[in-house]
Design goal:
- The complex is a heterodimer of chains A (about 270) and B (about 290).
- The longest helix of chain A has about 35 residues.
- Helices cover about 70% and strands about 0% of the residues of chain A.
- With about 270 residues, chain A is mainly α.
- Chain B is mostly helical and about 290 residues long.
- Chain B is elongated.
- Classes of the chains: A mainly alpha (about 270), B mainly alpha (about 290).
Chain lengths: ~270, ~290
């Protein structure tokens, strides 16, 4: 319980840091200090500067904002799609359920990292950094619904056959009322679990995409693009500060995993 | 008969998924920005008539459905097209790179299963709880590290990159198997065996494992998909010339025909692995029922 509270406090502090990024690091993520490329940690630059002379602390803060705000947004999109598609399939059943499950099988059969880079490669080259970040996370949301839809569909089917649905029908509840008042509220724990489970998955996927150069476009930072600095350490890590984004990713993902352990039981 | 029927059903499912996937893929290729644009259009040495002839040849490709049917026909005859980015036949590229990925996948999955299943089995023995907790801690930590970072750590440590795939897949295998064994250990027949004083090893191998074997086999099928996804960052960052690296190059070069073919191929491999695992699991269940 104490570990869970510590994880939640860490996530809250991180979220607060993201919100106050403009105040904590007023120099911004793109400003270059051209006389100080690859500078070591100092009072002016808490985590030093990168090879283009940009303040690493500011970039980590803004990168955290991008990854930490958009991963939940992508998770929300995936959960909403899963709720809509899986919920409808489970509620209506029959041919619709068969069709939806076939599409779900199709999506699940395609290794989604391959699918993700394929769809990412389809996008025009001249998109702005802000649009690229939105597209990256929207793609994650749009491709990550299938597994959750299966769980939601099974739950919705179970609820439709349950005693509470039978009782509601016997009392004359219409299909819409049954869905709105009885099925949806009971699906909430499963949907909530899927939402929380998806966040660390999307954070890690964005980090992998970013490290391969297929994530958020420069100069906008994200954890993935910040981790690319590790690729330049072929002869060893000379500046420990470049490990800051990695430490942050590990702490954040582990905090999410600790925080959602209770939710996983509903999934 | 039932095994044949299952095999037929799975074959049909693979065919439907591939046909639908192919349809979606050809739609992607057809609607991608830059489709139908030829580099020769920029060649100022060509006359206006040559340009018109080029455009005429492109126009004869017809509508989307015709494009799909022709694409399927060519694929069935072994012509998988030509890579735009690498300017080589896709078939040749695949033949060159598939053995490398097979080696990476084999080594990675071997390591993942050896560690994952071995440690899960050890952690289910009450006397080995310490090992179980240590393995759980390592697996949880590995779950929080991006696959690409693990690959870089292998490069920095000058360790064989193939084994990075093993460390990426290991935590999932371990967590799932450990949970499965934990649930099975509480089943009534296992409790009864323990109450009769049956030894831990015998309980594990005679009473717990047979119950979970079908699900573990299903996970083996899924782990192929996980391993293939892990191959992309590992092959790119460890410079292993396999399918994953080819997919990355194709993505950077916006080589959609190659990417689509790779996605289809990996889907086929995933479905085949899942099918084989399901068939084996079905046989096991059938054997248990008999």
């Amino acid at each position: 319980m104490k570990v869970r509270i510590a994880a939640l406090v860490f996530l809250a502090l991180l979220a607060l840091g993201c919100v106050l990024a403009g105040w904590i690091a007023p120099q911004g993520y793109a400003e270059q200090f051209r006389s100080e490329p690859d500078a070591a940690c100092s009072r002016a630059h808490l985590l030093g500067t990168d090879d283009l002379g940009r303040d690493r602390f500011a970039r980590v803060l803004y990168g955290t904002r991008v990854s930490l705000l958009l991963a939940p947004a992508a998770a929300l999109l995936a959960t909403a799609l899963a709720g809509l598609i899986g919920g409808a399939a489970g509620f209506f059943g029959g041919a619709l359920e068969g069709c939806v499950m076939a599409v779900t099988d199709l999506v699940l059969a395609m290794p989604w990292f391959f699918l993700l880079i394929t769809v990412r490669a389809l996008l025009p080259l001249n998109v702005s950094p802000a649009l690229s970040v939105s597209i990256t996370f929207a793609l994650l949301g749009c491709l990550g619904w299938a597994g959750a839809a299966r769980v939601v569909c099974a739950n919705a089917r179970g609820l439709c056959r349950s005693d509470l649905a039978l009782l509601a029908r016997a009392q004359g509840a219409s299909g819409l009322r049954l869905l709105w008042r009885h099925i949806l509220p009971n699906l909430r724990p499963a949907l909530s679990a899927q939402f929380w489970i998806s966040i660390p998955v999307f954070i890690l996927t964005e980090a992998n995409l970013g490290m391969l150069g297929l994530g958020v476009a420069e100069p906008l930072p994200s954890w993935g693009s910040l981790l690319r600095e590790l690729e330049s350490c072929s002869t060893g890590i000379t500046q420990p500060a470049i490990l800051a984004p990695l430490v942050l990713v590990i702490l954040t993902v582990s905090s999410f995993q600790i925080a959602v352990r209770k939710e996983e039981k509903h999934a | 008969m039932s095994a044949l029927r299952r095999l037929g059903q799975h074959g049909l499912r693979i065919a439907v998924v591939l046909l639908a996937g192919g349809l979606l893929s050809s739609m992607l290729v057809r609607t991608a920005p830059g489709f139908g644009v030829d580099e020769q259009d920029l060649d100022s040495r060509l006359t206006a008539e040559s340009h018109r002839a080029l455009h005429g040849a492109q126009a004869t490709e017809g509508g989307f459905l015709r494009f799909y049917v022709e694409w399927c026909g060519r694929a069935l005859h072994g012509d998988l097209g030509t890579s735009i980015a690498l300017n080589e036949p896709v078939r040749q590229l695949l033949a060159e790179r598939m053995p490398e990925t097979a080696k990476t996948l084999g080594a990675g999955l071997g390591l993942a299963w050896m560690l994952g299943l071995g440690l899960a089995l050890l952690s289910s023995v009450p006397a080995m709880r310490g090992v179980g907790w240590a393995a759980w801690f390592v697996a949880s930590a590995l779950l929080c590290v991006p696959a690409a970072v693990l690959a870089i750590l292998f490069v920095l440590a000058a360790a064989p990159g193939r084994l990075a795939v093993g460390l990426i897949v290991f935590p999932k295998v371990f967590e799932f198997t450990r949970n499965l064994l934990g649930h099975s250990a509480d089943l009534p027949h296992v409790l009864a065996a323990r109450a009769r004083g049956v030894g831990e090893c015998r309980v594990l191998f005679r009473h717990v494992l047979p119950v979970t074997a079908a699900q573990i086999l299903a996970l083996a099928g899924v782990s192929v998909c996980m391993g293939l996804a892990a191959c992309i960052p590992v092959e790119v960052l460890c410079d292993l010339p396999g399918i994953g690296q080819l997919a990355w190059k194709a993505a950077l070069g916006r080589d959609l025909p190659l990417l689509v073919m790779l996605t289809m191929l990996v889907t086929l491999a995933t479905l085949a692995a899942n099918g084989a695992a399901e068939a084996l699991a079905g046989n096991l269940r059938g054997g248990e029922a008999r």
